[in-house]
Each structure stands twice: as C-alpha cells, then as structure tokens.
Design brief:
alpha/beta; 6-stranded parallel β-sheet; 6 strands
Length: about 190
C-alpha cells in the first residue's frame, strides 16, 4: 500500500485539501495520512460548510499536528511524499528553514531530507520578494511549488471545476490516476 501525507495549513482554500482527500479516497492503492494545522481547523470553520470531522473522515489515518512522535515525523516511515494543500507562506517559511515545531512542518522536512516528493500548493497573492525567495529556496531543496492556478482550456463551469484542476495537477506529481479535469488535446483545425 502506497502512502501519501496530506497536510492542510491555515491558508485560505481548505476546500482544496478536502477535494484532495476525496480524490485520494477514491484511489484504492493509496493510504492517506492527514495532518491539519491548528489554524487549518479554524479556517475550515470559517470557509467551508464542512467540519474538521468531515475532513478527518476522508483520511485513512489522522495525526495530531502537535504529535512530533507520529509516524510521518520519521524517515523510516515510508511514503510517496506529501502534499500541503493549501500551504500558507508561514508554513512554507517554516519548512524552508527546517523549523520542525509541529508535525506538518516536520513531515515536510522529512520528505525533503529523504528525497521524497513534497508538493506545496501555496495560497498567497500578491507575493513579495521575501515570499519569492522562500519559494525559490524550497524549489532548490526539491519541493514542487504548485500554486492553485486554473487552466482555462478546461473551460471550468464552477468553482469545483477550478478546485479539481489544481487537485489533479497535484496528484499528477505522484502518478495518481484520476479524472478530475480534461487534459489538453491538440485542437483540430477546421
């Protein structure tokens, strides 16, 4: 069984994390491990019709963000890697500087040190130079920076379509099969 850690920070856009958990639940060969930051719990209440329990029910395993002894804090816990969706700039900064003071950051740090995939769906705009330097540092360390930018070629009809596109792009990084969005095809000239 392959494992993917899903981290959800307190950035706006927790619906992305919810959709990622739903998509991973549909993948029979994957086990999802969820880490919600303390601020994510508050953001979920403020932004979505879902409860924290709804998010947790979608994961195979739920870890407390305060439990630095949890399995994702160790490199000996084999995973495909981690998606932090959404990822706040605060969390990205903590990861870039190896400040493993909570499980979300520690698990991401483990992915980097073990050369496992780390996908950060950074949700902030506009970005100032400090943000850009942090994201550059993370990219140089091996992280994939994947901001939630919709592709208009898919002709989204709803917010759910836009969310699904970003989630699909994140899952593509792990080779997870899905049908979350229509892939680009060469247009037929008429």
């Amino acid at each position: 069984m392959r494992r993917i850690i899903v981290g959800i920070s307190g950035a706006s856009g927790s619906v992305y994390g919810y959709a990622a958990l739903q998509a991973l639940q549909a993948a029979p060969d994957l086990e999802s491990h969820l880490v919600l930051s303390m601020q994510a719990r508050r953001t979920i209440e403020l932004e979505t019709p879902f409860s924290v329990a709804d998010f947790e029910a979608l994961a195979d395993v739920v870890h407390s963000d305060g439990d630095l002894a949890a399995s994702p804090s160790s490199g000996s816990f084999i995973t495909e890697g981690m998606i932090i969706i959404p990822c706040s700039v605060r969390s990205a900064s903590a990861i870039a500087h190896s400040l493993g003071s909570n499980l979300l950051v520690r698990a991401a740090d483990v992915c980097l040190k073990e050369k496992r995939k780390l996908v950060l769906v950074v949700r902030e705009t506009p970005l100032h130079l400090g943000h850009l330097r942090t994201l550059t540092q993370l990219a140089e360390m091996g992280a994939v920076i994947l901001p939630p930018v919709p592709a208009m070629y898919a002709k989204p009809k709803s917010v759910d379509d836009i969310v699904a596109h970003t989630v699909g792009k994140a899952l593509d990084q792990f080779g997870v099969e899905h049908r979350l969005f229509a892939r680009w095809k060469t247009p037929i000239e008429s």
